[in-house]
Design a protein that fits this description.
It contains 1 helix and 3 strands. By secondary structure, it is of the alpha+beta class. The chain has a 3-stranded mixed beta sheet, with helices on one face. A hairpin with a 2-residue loop joins strand 2 and strand 3.
């Protein structure tokens, strides 16, 4: 694979099961780099913010997206 553009925005600290958190982030980032349209270089942004009492994290990429019909299969 070629180079991947990767941007990491300031993330809030979170406490939780280290193994599960690592697995979620590893899979999100691997999928963001892997599932891009042919001939497109991956561009990945990881972000996080505090929203009231919640912590919100996300990955933004130039991927192919997930068809709504398959959304129920996420994180199983």
């Amino acid at each position: 694979p070629g180079p991947v553009a990767f941007e990491l925005e300031g993330l809030p600290s979170v406490h939780g099961d280290a193994a599960l958190l690592e697995r979620v982030w590893r899979e999100l980032l691997a999928n963001a780099a892997k599932f891009v349209p042919p001939g497109t270089a991956p561009e990945i942004t990881v972000f996080g913010r505090v929203a009231g009492a919640d912590l919100v994290f996300g990955v933004r990429d130039r991927g192919i997206g997930i068809p709504p019909a398959h959304a129920d299969r996420l994180f199983k």
